[in-house]
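Final report, closing paragraph on structural work. Over the funding period we assembled a curated collection of sequence-structure pairs, and we close with a single example.
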Amino acid sequence: MTNTGRRRALVRIAWGAAALAGIFVAGVAALIGVNAMDVELSAEARALLEPPVARASDERNGYLHFLGLHAPAGASTYAHGLRVLEALRASEAPTPAETGEAKALTEFPRIVGAQATCCRVESGTCLGAPAEATRDTLGKYGPFLERARQMRDAPDYLELYAPAAFHARVAPYHALLDAQCLTHAAIALAAGSAGLGRALDELEAEMAFHRRALAGSRTRVGKIFAAELLARDALLLSELLRAGRETAAAERERIARLLEPLSAEEADMRAALASEYRLGLRLVMTLGKEQTLAHHFPVSRWYEGVLFLRRHETANAIAAQFRLDEALSRVPLAGFEAAARERARQQPPAYAEGEFPGWVNPAGKILAGAAGAGNADSLRRMNDVRALLAMVAAQAALYSAGARTPEAVRAALAGGVGRAHPDPYTEKPFAYDEAANALTFAPQAKEARWQTRLRERFAGRVGVTL
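Its predicted structure, as stored:
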């Protein structure tokens, strides 16, 4: 190569290096400029970012006994629950120490549901389970059932842990399902041997506990889980009423109390929604600092640090959605679907096309758009539980009214029973399926585990057999 050729090559290299340096400088300037144009964090976003007030709790809190359900033999469920709570909170650290002990404390095995025949209230055959098999199950898991009753008898329930990071562990709520499985089996056995009154004694305590759990839950998953446990209780009560309809009249007032509508505190979803939105807000504000996506994707902390260029703008858009969902949670059941459609049309303008340009903040736009995903269906699942309570109350009222034939059932639904216990979705009497001899309603939730078999039995609807 001649000297002239070398000079030209060096010039090209120099220009290329200068261009790359210019692109880098321009990129840094763009980052600084875009962030400089970020908006102020709204008061609504600031309020949501504030962690809930920490509350001290003692042995009266059933939530701690729930966390301690898998305590070693002879150990206190309360003391073990405190250890589990500490391990759950430690999992929120940016680089949590995944020790064997921490994993063992926060991952409960399915000791009942996967290994034993549970009382399947969704099939309406709980009371028909073979008594000998039920006794064997209760004998095998007797110590766990006793711990579950100790948890249930605690007078208070306040959820003390709400994950503050996406990589944090979730409380092992399936242990509550195992506890209910055994309790329902014990209730079914008592109904067969001691009658309706004795069965109602334990079911009354079980439903009271699940209502306390519903009122004291502060996360979306905790709230929905408690609601679905209460739904299964109501289905078992429906089966008990059907089997003991001749003697149910003597328990009329007690049954009515069990089926009262959810109280304002039990139905309140504000704290649960706030917890869900706080999780998204904290990710926006701390990604690349306290939180990382490296648990799920091969990305570097530097990349995460610049992923959200306009953190405040993104946070404000997410907080605006919380306000919409919180208002939606207070809409009566009859108008919920219309309100949900309107809420979907009222997306905050902060991430409308053109006002929150994707080329400036693509990740922020995606997260802001997904922040409310699943919340509407969580509210629908709560609404379906409220409708189920009303339907079982209508069933009990039909028995009290002596409606035994299809003609008598239709007459009672058209009269006093229908007016006193209407379908909250339609504000009219519950639909009566004469072929199945069942009351039904059309559920709003896309899916709920307690509804699966019911929808199969009643052509896509939720029903109770008369």
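Residues 3-36 form the longest helix (34 residues). DSSP finds 21 helices and three strands in the chain. We thank the funder for supporting this effort.
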